[in-house]
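[Q] Does anyone have a clean structure-token version of this?
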Amino acid sequence: MVVSGQDVTQSDVARAAGVSRSLVSLALNGSPKVAEATRHRIAETAASLGYRVNATAASLARQRSSIIGLVLPNLRNAFLEQIAHTLGEATSARGLALFVTVGSDRPEMLHRAIESLLGVRVTGLILVSPWLPDEDITAIGEEAPVCLIGRRSPGGRVDSVRVDEDAAARLLIGHLAELGTHSIGYVGPHVVNDTSPFERETSLRRAALAAGLPVDARECGEDAGPAVREMLQAHPEPLGLVIHSDTLAIDAVPVLRETPRRPGAEVALVSYDNTYLARRGEFSLTSIDQPEDVLGTTAVRLLCERAGGDAVPPEEPRDVVLEPALVIRDSSRLATMREAAPHR
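[A] Here you go.
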């Protein structure tokens, strides 16, 4: 079968160039928002594949439905489950339907998830902590209204709602400093620039530096247990152990039970999200509370305002920052670390 240039899609060009389809669309339409080097690479890729504009497809892509698309990074995090539930209720209250898909920390999979939603001409997209460069997110915002949860807006037509990571880090570090910790151990997922894990770790380092506490940061996979075990072996001193999320923090609980070091004394365990996992008695995790109900309803409101309707869409991106709260539980409040000697 002979393949013509008309059969080559922007998605094909995007996969070959290693970028989002939205960025391809901007580049091929001559948008000044695309960096010159990126535009040149995309144009060369399109030419090599024999791409030609499909006017009919472009016309269809401009139509919109009553669907809001939600892209989650994974389904393994209790906080994401709570966010999805809140967004479902908020969209339903506005007479909209919520379509949920899952991306990942692999850009090509995330691009496909977003393309699948753009393909049904969604009213807009809500992306939760997306692992994409700012340039790609800005380009997606040119095709459909976008609101980010858990990550600051990169500009353009992209809004965001998030908890103040700097304030959250100050709350955690302040609490651990009061306990008398000598150092901070941080365990989280793989960190790359422009992602929520990167911002969280950066904020934590900044707060620890201000408090005069050294930070040892280690990456983990889906199970944080091995990284926690290594951290405990490397730090016999009173340690403030900060885990990226409640879901990962529960992996630390059985590891801590293997050691004679007293929870809340020689090791203080804290995490983020304050999900139902943190509240369970067998874990009782001190955790940063992120108000998922406010995050969800605000994201839907921003997205609907960006989509227009009866009102004129805002010209500038909105970045709504919420104040976090620290909920202290048994994992960090049994005894002060000043009373504890290092385990040897």
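[Q] Thanks! Anything notable?
[A] The first strand starts at residue 67 and ends at 72.
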